[in-house]
Amino acid sequence: MTTTARAAICPGEGKEFHMAEVELDDLREDEIMIRVVATGICHTDMAVRDQQLPTPLPAVLGHEGAGIVEAVGDKVTVAKVGDRVIASFNSCGHCPSCDVDAPTYCYEFGAHNFSGRRADGSATITRDGEAVGGNFFGQSSFATHAIAHQRNVVRVPDSAADLPLERLAPLGCGLMTGAGAVLRSMDVREGLPIAVFGTGTVGLAAIMAAKIAGADPIIAVDMHESRVELARELGATHTVKAGDDAMDKLKAIAPQGLAYAFDTTGVKKVIEGAFEQIAPKGILGLVGASPPEDMLSLNEAALMGGGKRVIGILGGDSDVGSFICELIAYHQDGRFPFDRLIRYFDFDDINAGIEASESGEVVKPVLRISAE
Ligand SMILES: NC(=O)c1ccc[n+]([C@@H]2O[C@H](COP(=O)([O-])OP(=O)(O)OC[C@H]3O[C@@H](n4cnc5c(N)ncnc54)[C@H](O)[C@@H]3O)[C@@H](O)[C@H]2O)c1
Ligand SMILES: [Zn+2]
Ligand SMILES: [Zn+2]
Fold this sequence. Notes:
Elements: E1 3-9, E2 18-24, E3 31-40, H1 43-49, E4 65-72, E5 84-87, H2 96-99, H3 109-113, E6 125-127, E7 130-132, E8 145-149, E9 153-155, H4 165-168, H5 174-185, E10 194-197, H6 201-213, E11 218-222, H7 225-234, E12 238-241, H8 246-253, E13 258-263, H9 268-276, E14 278-286, H10 300-305, E15 309-312, H11 321-332, E16 342-346, H12 350-358, E17 364-368
Helix pairs in contact: 5-6
Bound molecules: nicotinamide-adenine-dinucleotide (NAD) and zinc ion (2 copies).
């Protein structure tokens, strides 16, 4: 039996999201029906709206959903009806990356997350009998109900029963990505300098994680005064206002160079400038969505001679399950206070939430979709 849901439809570039009634398909054996309680808004939703990412529009976006399981397919073991769950990115489970527990680099990542359909091409969402883009990050959670999968859902541990789902929702993308980039992808070592370019959700999560890892100094770079201030409160030892003299200031703070530079801006000039600040054996980690035609220009001798690494990072090399639980535990210890980034919006105010994110006023808008 299909499920009727109320969803926010993204019609395309420059246009506001609008609410509509949609039908969700019957569950497959490895799928999970979630009644969505809350969903974070991430910059990547905007990147799809602006078609920097190839998900066909119109579509139901949203990929930081949390909610209650309403139904499960026969082969689902990760959660049962009534469980509180967080949804994250999806993966195939049988490619060379999934085989070594690196699902963010799934060979079929696009088909499972960005195609607007299930990987087999079938639609999960229809409207008036016509297919609408769905299965975004294996969830499409800007909706009252979402079809997720056995591989992209984690059950909230019983030890976190007191934490509201509306707070936990954004763990499934931006927070996990920033923290994972530091703790997993770059494996930041204690006592070495890191600079984080861009202090939105991903950058601030990286700064909290850099403090957990013991990096020193921890330098936050952004043009928004309020964001670098927050970065300082969350663990940055130094802040630098983005601008022409930013790289000189970094050099003064870390004269031997940066052991780690983490770019969340996706801005070519920032990335190339950051590369020049890398110390021998240093790592430049990249997560930002940039214009698809952008190419980077790096000096080969500097890259080779210093044994430097430039790495693309997806999802902070997270594995969905255990890493999200690890982040919840850091939060409970007071070491990952990501709730300071959140402002809540009613589901109907999704466009206001997006605007608040894009203006820089709110770091992490979270939509309240139903009561827990
Ligand atoms: N690779 C992944 O797995 C992954 C996951 C989540 C998000 N993302 C991408 O990461 C990026 C960051 O996401 P977010 O949610 O933190 O976005 P965000 O928009 O909240 O943060 C980006 C920050 O960069 C700052 N910025 C922009 N230009 C700058 C410059 N020239 N110098 C310094 N700071 C600058 C902005 O002021 C903003 O604070 C986005 O492009 C998003 O699409 C990637
Ligand atoms: Zn795979
Ligand atoms: Zn995201």
